[in-house]
């Protein structure tokens, strides 16, 4: 996991409180002593997508204008200054079109799918890479877009365990060609690659387990009342031996295409 400031608060859109599973999320946070808050003036529940990403002492703000919402622009949260007071924070602004769900931040590198190039046709690939690496002060690793997932997000595909250890989702259960491409892409950068694997317990929504919320040494893991739930908890406990694994039932948000990382935003006092 990336090295982060010790004090953090997790924020969620106020819209999330209308979901039944909000009570499960709230109870899990409170039971484990996690500070949390609610964001006003958001257009939907997916806070990770439009709130700035944190990397190396700065927040990086980008243009949130995804192609999949061009016919539903009422759901695009554009002005983050109306959502949160960033006056005390160091903000780096870029005009690249990015979804926060496509940003996985490590100590010295970040991971994004190649959909970032599709969303920024007015720049060359080389320019996109240069802008991102300069803004994040980190090496950009591009992985192939899982095109079955229209949003092009990386947070349902890979997560950092440490700077040289990466976790990938259960592609060996349902998409071995994409798994092969991911391994080929990631192996030059990581000395260890772990994989989730559910075998016969795999279900369509098993992808959601990797979309956990990480706060310090806590992993809040989505539970869906499906057979892979327990397998995910066991495997993550083995992969993260020094972390507390906290199961949270969030079926309501998964039905809408996201899970715990998608609806949360970690704010670090810097």
Which secondary structure elements does this structure contain, and how are they paired or packed?
Blueprint: E1 8-13, H1 22-31, E2 36-39, H2 47-50, E3 53-55, E4 58-63, E5 91-97, E6 104-105, E7 109-113, H3 115-118, H4 125-136, E8 139-143, E9 158-162, E10 165-168, H5 176-186, E11 192-195, E12 213-215, E13 218-223, H6 228-239, E14 244-249, H7 251-254, H8 260-263, E15 264-268
Parallel strand pairs: 1-2, 4-5, 7-8, 10-11, 13-14
Antiparallel strand pairs: 1-15, 3-4, 6-7, 9-10, 12-13
What does this protein structure show overall?
- The protein has a single domain, classed as L-arginine/glycine Amidinotransferase, Chain A (5-stranded Propeller).
- The chain is globular and about 45 Å long.
- The chain is built from eight helices and 15 strands.
- The chain starts with 7 loop residues before the first strand and ends with a strand.
- The chain has 270 residues and is an alpha/beta fold.
- A three-stranded mixed beta sheet has the order 2-1-15.
- Strand 9 and strand 10 (165-168) form a beta hairpin.
Brief write-up:
The protein is built from eight helices and 15 strands. It has 270 residues and is an alpha/beta fold. The longest helix has 12 residues, at 125-136.
The whole-number mean of residue pLDDT values reads 95
Q: How many helical stretches?
A: 8
| Uncertain residue ranges | none
How would you write the strand order of the largest sheet? 2-1-15
Shape: globular
- The H-level CATH homologous superfamily, spelled out, is L-arginine/glycine Amidinotransferase, Chain A
The second-level CATH architecture is 5-stranded Propeller
Name the beta content range: 25-35%
Tell me roughly what share of residues is in helical segments: 10-25%
